[in-house]
Amino acid sequence: MDTQTRNNLVQLSAAQMAEKFKAGEVSSRELVDAHLDVIESAEPQINAFLKVSADVAREQADAIDAKRAAGEELAPLAGVPIAIKDMIVTKGIETTAASKILEGWIPPYDATVITKLKQAGMPILGKTNLDEFAQGSSTEHSAYGNTNNPWDTERVPGGSGGGSAAAVGAFEAPLALGTDTGGSIRQPGAFTGTVGVKPTYGGVSRFGAIAMASSLDQIGPVTRTVLDSALLQETIGGHDPKDSTSIPSPAPAMVSAALEGQKRDLSGMKVGLIKELSGDGFDEGVSQRFTEAVEELKAMGAEVVEVSLPHLKYALGAYYVIMPSEVSSNLARYDGMRYGLRVMPPEGVPATAANMMAYTREAGFGDEVKRRIILGTYALSAGYYDAWYGSAQKVRTLIIADFNKAFEQVDVLVSPTAPSTAFKFGEKSADPLSMYLGDIATIPANLAGVPAISIPAGLSEDGMPVGFQFIAPQQHDEVLYKPAAALEAALEDKWNGPVWQWMTTPWLGE
């Protein structure tokens, strides 16, 4: 197809692609080929993908095209291709978690979310880059190179799911899956002008998601519109008996909530501004876009009040004890014995199991992963467990109580998604604490297990996207989608279209 036709296709929303597919105006094979063409053009500049599964995607597209031709009933997103964060296992497609320790591993099974995507007739374009084992906020810690932000390739795309966000932001994929442990879907969403959702903990099966911190990890959508996120979350959500933490109830009605939100009537909705996530520490451009967005919510009829979550000031500290503790436990399995990399001791060093494990882990893990393993092992060690891990869990309980109390007063809570826009490569990599502080607004939702969404709120004075975050009560993900869709529509009017129109896209020839 010619360049203009390709560009017109890839810039559609996933919902629009699905409509055209069902109407017979475009085939799934054409959608896949259009995106593969953009991937070929964009990847030298973006590096969003670790593995492009072109043959698999085309085969899956041909199969769903045949089902449409046969008149079979089709799922809402049938025919629409998707990219997958390389933290989620895919049968027959290499899965590495962006680590040398899993290089070359071909999983013998699919994650539950992958099974659901295949059942829905959604071709898989490939596996996207990330910070190694999802440990980072910039995608600078991948063993296979940085992913660049499509808005400015000298800046980070966020992390850990920078590959998924960059792929969707650069039109290499209309949809992607990510995992969110402390903001790894939402913060990259804010940095790349995309929509990122962390569902309620247990609302989407984690079976087949490589574990980082099991009480915090959650698979969720990466898209360009709120409606697309609702469609994707309904596709992958619901109970899974293979996941012991899966909530035994169907996915909420998120699509209808998003469609209702597009009417821009928020009368009767009460919105809480989180006092602790504003002011000092947030860039002026971020705060300005946030304030303007809140005014849009008011203009649509929402009542806005300030709400205090007093224990949020301890959230970052609690998270950076709980998360590395669980990392230390989960990553103990990568020992050179069972699967993945194995490095034998050099000549002159006894060839014992302990030495083999030590050399394997030294060669296989990057610096950030090692840092978190060491922190977590210390926090779990005898004599320190109660003082560190036990205390952090008590703080987590207090934060959950704060959220519960806040949701007695308001329907949703709002904050900026991140304190700044995307920073330049190397700017924070030498200062881990500065990097960790970037997650201050996203971490609380993971600690409390509540759902949250980040949507683009416009551009800061540096020309980079700003994210706006909604947080809803546990198991009420649908509550996110109405105000998010309403604000998205209002801001598109304000910015004369979607935020991505302001991005320079040389890989599209524009």
TrEMBL record:
<dbReference type="GO" id="GO:0050567">
    <property type="term" value="F:glutaminyl-tRNA synthase (glutamine-hydrolyzing) activity"/>
</dbReference>
<feature type="active site" description="Charge relay system">
    <location>
        <position position="160"/>
    </location>
</feature>
<dbReference type="InterPro" id="IPR023631">
    <property type="entry name" value="Amidase_dom"/>
</dbReference>
<dbReference type="GO" id="GO:0006412">
    <property type="term" value="P:translation"/>
</dbReference>
<dbReference type="Pfam" id="PF01425">
    <property type="entry name" value="Amidase"/>
</dbReference>
<keyword id="KW-0808">Transferase</keyword>
<comment type="similarity">
    <text>Belongs to the amidase family. GatA subfamily.</text>
</comment>
<keyword id="KW-0067">ATP-binding</keyword>
<feature type="compositionally biased region" description="Polar residues">
    <location>
        <begin position="138"/>
        <end position="151"/>
    </location>
</feature>
<dbReference type="GO" id="GO:0005524">
    <property type="term" value="F:ATP binding"/>
</dbReference>
<feature type="active site" description="Acyl-ester intermediate">
    <location>
        <position position="184"/>
    </location>
</feature>
<feature type="active site" description="Charge relay system">
    <location>
        <position position="85"/>
    </location>
</feature>
<dbReference type="InterPro" id="IPR020556">
    <property type="entry name" value="Amidase_CS"/>
</dbReference>
<feature type="region of interest" description="Disordered">
    <location>
        <begin position="138"/>
        <end position="164"/>
    </location>
</feature>
<dbReference type="InterPro" id="IPR000120">
    <property type="entry name" value="Amidase"/>
</dbReference>
<keyword id="KW-0436">Ligase</keyword>
<keyword id="KW-0648">Protein biosynthesis</keyword>
<dbReference type="InterPro" id="IPR036928">
    <property type="entry name" value="AS_sf"/>
</dbReference>
<dbReference type="GO" id="GO:0016740">
    <property type="term" value="F:transferase activity"/>
</dbReference>
<comment type="subunit">
    <text>Heterotrimer of A, B and C subunits.</text>
</comment>
<dbReference type="InterPro" id="IPR004412">
    <property type="entry name" value="GatA"/>
</dbReference>
<dbReference type="GO" id="GO:0030956">
    <property type="term" value="C:glutamyl-tRNA(Gln) amidotransferase complex"/>
</dbReference>
<feature type="domain" description="Amidase">
    <location>
        <begin position="30"/>
        <end position="479"/>
    </location>
</feature>
<keyword id="KW-0547">Nucleotide-binding</keyword>
<comment type="function">
    <text>Allows the formation of correctly charged Gln-tRNA(Gln) through the transamidation of misacylated Glu-tRNA(Gln) in organisms which lack glutaminyl-tRNA synthetase. The reaction takes place in the presence of glutamine and ATP through an activated gamma-phospho-Glu-tRNA(Gln).</text>
</comment>
<protein>
    <recommendedName>
        <fullName>Glutamyl-tRNA(Gln) amidotransferase subunit A</fullName>
        <ecNumber>6.3.5.7</ecNumber>
    </recommendedName>
</protein>
